[in-house]
Design brief:
Helix content: over 70%
Structural class: mainly alpha
Order of helices and strands: HHHHHHHHHHHH
Number of helices: 12
Number of strands: 0
């Protein structure tokens, strides 16, 4: 077999391993998934009328706020799911299985590739579940064309890939799974200070740069534009640049840490 065939075979084996772990130990995924669903229900049914009135200039319309909120919650779901990836990678590093894999005749990078592909698939599955909940409570995207739906799916997959590589790096440098969970908290925290819940223009002036100059806000605004027909502007290019930059950074970081000789 060629080197490429061996790499694909071994990566596929590691992917199956990670998916089996996720199926046998679903508590981490479920806990991380409950956070965006809880936030969605909380802001729609508890704060929905008030938030709608504030954003709409006095007219309360919960359905409009649901449409505004869902794209941000979807991106938050991706950030939360990748936290589980950091924990899973850290567990592999600290429990000795990586040392065992190093002694076997398998492709060196297949372990990490299996984690990355498995995490992206879990992100997409989580997004579908959160999207189903959103549709059940009233979210609709009637104006989006088939091409816009394809572009939205591509954005979600690329964003999931970018955050997954960052999460893998965080897991590799963490001394234990608890530390990995703490190191990956920015992936959950950043959506909270983005345009997920309110427009940037409605935030205090001193806080607006914090919400604007981060990866989640342009990705959220681009997804809103694709699904709801709002103005995308420069956010599409910014989202793409953020995704590519984080993917390259996370890949190089993870590769460098993983290839270090164990102490």
């Amino acid at each position: 077999m060629s080197a490429l065939s061996l790499a694909v075979r071994d990566s596929n084996t590691m992917l199956r391993r990670n998916l089996l772990h996720a199926r046998r130990y679903p508590s981490m995924t479920l806990n991380l998934l409950l956070t965006p669903i809880t936030m969605l229900l909380l802001f729609v049914y508890i704060f929905g009328d008030v938030m709608s009135a504030g954003i709409g200039g006095g007219g309360a319309d919960r359905s409009e706020y649901i449409a505004y909120l869902v794209p941000g919650i979807v991106m938050m779901t991706i950030g939360g799911t990748t936290v589980g990836t950091a924990v899973s990678v850290s567990m592999d590093m600290t429990e000795g299985i990586i040392a065992r894999f190093r002694t076997m005749a398998i492709h060196r990078g297949s372990v990490i590739i299996g984690h990355v592909v498995g995490s992206v698939l879990q992100c997409i599955a989580s997004v579908v579940l959160v999207g189903a909940v959103a549709v059940a409570i009233g979210f609709r995207s009637t104006d989006a064309t088939a091409l816009e739906w394809v572009a939205a799916f591509g954005l979600l997959a690329l964003f999931a890939l970018a955050l997954t590589w960052i999460a893998v790096g965080m897991g590799l440098i963490s001394p234990n799974p608890e530390a990995a969970s703490n190191n990956a908290l920015p992936l959950i925290f950043l959506p909270l200070i983005s345009s997920t819940f309110v427009p940037i223009d409605a935030m205090p002036g001193w806080f607006q740069p914090i919400a604007e100059y981060q990866p989640f806000t342009p990705a959220i605004e681009t997804l809103r534009g694709l699904l709801l027909g709002t103005e995308i502007g420069h956010n599409g290019w910014l989202a793409l640049i953020w995704c590519l930059a984080l993917t390259v950074l996370g890949y190089l970081w993870s590769k460098s840490v993983f290839n270090r000789d164990p102490k």
